[in-house]
Riboflavin biosynthesis protein RibD (Neobacillus piezotolerans), 363 residues
Amino acid sequence: MTSDEFYMDLALQNAQALKGQTDPNPLVGSVIVNDGRIVGIGAHLQAGGPHAEIHALRMAGEKARGGTIYVTLEPCSHHGRTGPCAEAIVQAGLKKVVIATLDPNPVVKGNGVAILENAGIEVAVGIREQESRKMNEVFNKFIVTKRPFVTMKAGSSLDGKIATHTFESKWITSEDARRDAHFLRNENMAILVGANTILKDNPELTTRVPNGRNPIRVVLDSTLKIPLDSKVISDGLAETWIFTTEDADQEKEKLLSDQGVSVYRTAGSGKVDLGEVMDILGEKLVSSVLVEGGGTVHANLIEKKLVDKVILYFAPKLIGGQSAPTFLEGNGAESMSDVLDLADTSIERIGRDFKFTGYPIYN
Ligand code: AOF
Ligand code: ZN
């Protein structure tokens, strides 16, 4: 490992520790080294707060002069909620800037590097580039498309069942796997389900992680059939947003609004327009969504190419039964050429279960 990689790894670790706390801003870490000593460390803590480099520069003070700053993301060039970090680096008299990856934000992309180079500072880009890009997969999509990064999650038997044919589902996966899944709720800004899941399970959809953050509960409900006494409406534990269609009953909408629920109507009748749901969530700065189905919602989202990442917890069990529900319903692929391929896959053991992660490649 080179010393550049060593310091960049430290910056990455610090950034990673803030997962779930900075959105919709990226995870960013920074380390300043002078004369072989670390003189400043910083990470971006929350949107609206100082950027990683600013924290590190403040810690280093005069010791930054003549040193090298490591940043996991290109220093910014714009006057946003905070000042341009590239200019702060120039002011502080750094000699060299090592960057993991360019900022995909169109207002920054390359402009930060240009400010630094124009000031005569040596700039190196690409140290731990893959790691940094992966860490910010949510931000990278959101800042370019203005739509949230969507993770579809399910826990099933090896044969893909999420319940028995009598709809018994507690529990398929182990406690370890379910605990791991609660971290996903903590990391995502919103959790999305269909109204049928509410009717069948009446879930809370909160995070059972110590000091965890509850995601906004998003329910797709084309006819506003959700019962007023369901937990997501009445428990007050987190915000609930319901997406419905133009046809849905006005009176029911009023009853829901009176309970503090936000109701959004997408254009047209029939099914909720999922693309519009993502546009509205993006406008409201919801950069990440965890989808916990069921199978019809999963199929509809996949059909619209709206799922960015798939996480499946497989319990080493076989449930069987033609009518037992699976995590992916709908019509399914017609021919092998229509089958959805997942790339960049990995598998991890969690207790007695297997956690599979993959990224859909849409044609
Ligand atoms: C950095 N270091 O630590 C972060 C950066 O609203 P603002 O002013 O905080 O600007 C947010 C944008 O700044 C964000 O979209 C991204 O392009 C960049 N974030 N940049 O150099 C940081 N958090
Ligand atoms: Zn900045």
